[in-house]
């Protein structure tokens, strides 16, 4: 029974050791910058030793490495600060940044192994995409000179997931097409009229801050006001009272929108917005109101390299529209737009994950 138990323990120990083998993960350790030559040599040698002891393979060619470790020294107060950064070579971005305060290099003997071990624990996570390890910061040093204090370790990989970069662009360009139910409400005794028409447009937006976008659009639509019973005769007497009137006018609408940006999860984008618009008639059947207001909601879903966008909007003219040919009818126009389109972002607002530092012990 004891032999079986020993064999079982040895077997699972071997499995555990094998599962922790990270030899396939290659690391390039950059020369330490700043500080004295003696300190540079000391920390470069010890960082390499700790990385190798953790099971990673150190290579001399940066282009062949999966990750790189860079270190720098800088004076602070009555001592120095060692800053260590783990970066992804292939993605060209920093992953984890940590700091170690010391007054003499000998004071780093106990803290440096822990610092490097915790930092390198992120490398297998990035390769295998397993859940990140739970990170617990070491207790602060209570000595008078505060030597050996270490920054809280921050797992930056989860700070902003890599696959949500589509939400963080400076410029967005898109196009859309959809239906546009319209209500025409004449100022006289004529009946209100509902019509349905289509619209198509393009848009351009600037993501000025994380929660706000400024957007303008160019929308083409067909205004189709048809009144079945016109009570009044035309001003020039050419059209009798009771005649039907139909006024079809191609319109070019230019909205200016301010959009709030809500980013739930990694695949969705919600943008409530409001703004004003101006309308230009392309023919002379009717004269539209030059100004109106609108409010709506964009719902975006990540789709490949861009965003599939569904938009619902309410538009209301601030002034009456006027028919041009006989000048008999003034009417208020209310428009509901329901569209679908595709939008693409350009120019990253940030490179990968923002670099964050943990709070330092005082």
TrEMBL record:
Signal peptide: 1-22
Alphabetized UniProt keyword annotations: Signal
Native species: Treponema primitia (strain ATCC BAA-887 / DSM 12427 / ZAS-2)
Name assigned to this protein: Outer membrane protein beta-barrel domain-containing protein
